[in-house]
Amino acid sequence: MTFDRALADQGFSPGDFGTRATATSGWVLERSGADYSPADLRSQWYRETSPYQVMRIIGDEELARTYSDRFLQSSGQGQPLSPDVPWLPESAAENMLWYFDTMPRDPQAMVAWIRDYLGPDRDGWQEGKIGWMLIGLLSFNVGDPEMRATMYRSLSLLPGSTVGPEQGGQRTITFDSHLATSEGGGTSLKRYTVTIEMATGLVTETTETSDVGLGIMPSDVPDARTRYEMSIVDALP
């Protein structure tokens, strides 16, 4: 999480208009959680999270400590989440399974379908949102192998996608989007990565980084990093 001191002086909270490019301080938060996906994906899901912990302070330490403490107080304790089938941030009125049931299973047709579904947007944003949706769907680590293989191939077709070499049985796809700014005066680079275990096709890590290469935040600190470990259980805890 990043924050600009000038915004603090004006009474804004962390995340209000702050960017990596303008941040004077930042902090790294960490929490764990568990998602239980039923064998019948239309059955009840179960999700829980632990409280956040501050793992690292960057830049203006006094400001970061003050506002990270406020964030921890407002975020509360970990808790069970909705038992419903998960939704994507890009969704209008459809849950994750709707996409699995509706999207075509040809990579080029899938890209065209998502493009039409999302509609037109500013330069860079339309292709970016297609990639972000695919990464979001893949990160649930559910769905039949044919559909997941099509989503991986669709992602690799997008401009800005780079498929890395296999290392330790894993391969990382880097997806860059050059997004037009709202002012129309330039672009910013947003980067997603998705790391795949080649033997299973499961996602083991995703990252999201905005304003790549700008500001005080170290390049190895993304906006968000999620690591996944998978196991099969007989029942909920």
How would you explain this protein's 3D organization?
The chain has a 5-stranded antiparallel β-sheet, covered by helices on one side. It is about 30% helix and about 25% strand. The longest helix is centred in the N-terminal third of the chain and has 15 residues, at about 60-75. With about 240 residues, the protein is of the alpha+beta class. The chain has helices spanning about 5-10, 60-75, 95-100, 105-120, 125-140, 145-155, and strands at about 1-5, 25-30, 35, 45-50, 55-60, 80, 160-165, 170-180, 185-195, 200-210, 225.
Task: Provide the descriptors you would attach to this structure in a database record.
single chain; 237 residues; alpha+beta; five-stranded antiparallel beta sheet; three-stranded antiparallel beta sheet; 6 helices; 28% helix; disordered N terminus
